[in-house]
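Q: Entry one of two.
A:
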Amino acid sequence: MKKFKAFTLVEVVIAITVISVTMVAVYGLIISVMNANQRNLHNLQASYLAAEGLEVFRFMRDSNWLGNYSWDRGFDDVSLTYYLEVSEASPFWALSTDISHIAVVDSIYSREFAIAETGTEKTIQVTCTVSWDERGIPKSYALSTFLSDWND
């Protein structure tokens, strides 16, 4: 019969230390991956919301043309900050300059729009900024496009 060697106290302490350090490192890695995943998810959602906001402006420009109005009717003042709200008169979005009408999406995201002149007569630059708080830190994502009177 073979006898097993008894472990000394030092060997047991070293083994427990190695296992503990490994477990803490693995736990830290898991937490890091989960936080990075949440940040990526928020950034992706913000990019979709910004793209949707710019599509609202394109839709409004095209609807103005179809209604035989000026292409920039409703968003022609470049000195204002605009916010989206759901229009109760129709199933479409409407613009507001009042921050109290700000549409909060998924309870953490908010959108605002800035319009800038480009130097070209019938072209404007629209920038949509989506903001949210991530673990108490303010974050934002901005997307911009140029709109013009394509009918001319």
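Q: Entry two of two.
A:
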Amino acid sequence: GNVAVLQKYLRQIHQHSECAEGDDSDSEELAFLYKDAFELIEESLEGLDRIQAIVADLQSFSRKSDDSWEYSDINKGLKTTLNVLNNKMKYHCKVITEFGDIPKIECDISKLQQVFLNIIINASQAIADKGVVRIRTSSTDKFVKIQISDNGEGMCKEQLKEIFAPFYT
């Protein structure tokens, strides 16, 4: 949308610069068009940067796992997952992150990101209207701890027994 308006402005700027010979109303309009054209260019460039980041996150997220483990940053994996989910969640719930200073761990990060994605989507779906999904990471001497919680209605004991059953939602 910005680029179409910018194109229109540049045509008008060209027309005004050809016929404006000191007319104050034309110079005011020309000043407005210049200012707004530059703002549109800046917004477009910011949008392109966001698109580039989203594409990079999607590529990182969707890379094929070859079952090889490597040392990975769990906080970065969670951030990438949240970037992928941003549009799905931003109007429905607020995501609060409390990332601790944790060491890299040996894992298959793409499989963990898929687990994070599923848990975070489930957490957001447990929220009836608007709510909060909270993600915390921390570590001890031997473990890295990842907590994902929501303020949805929760599950009864019978439902809780089924959470690992195939296709149960």
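A: Comment on entry two: The two ends are 39 Å apart (CA to CA). The mean pLDDT is 83.
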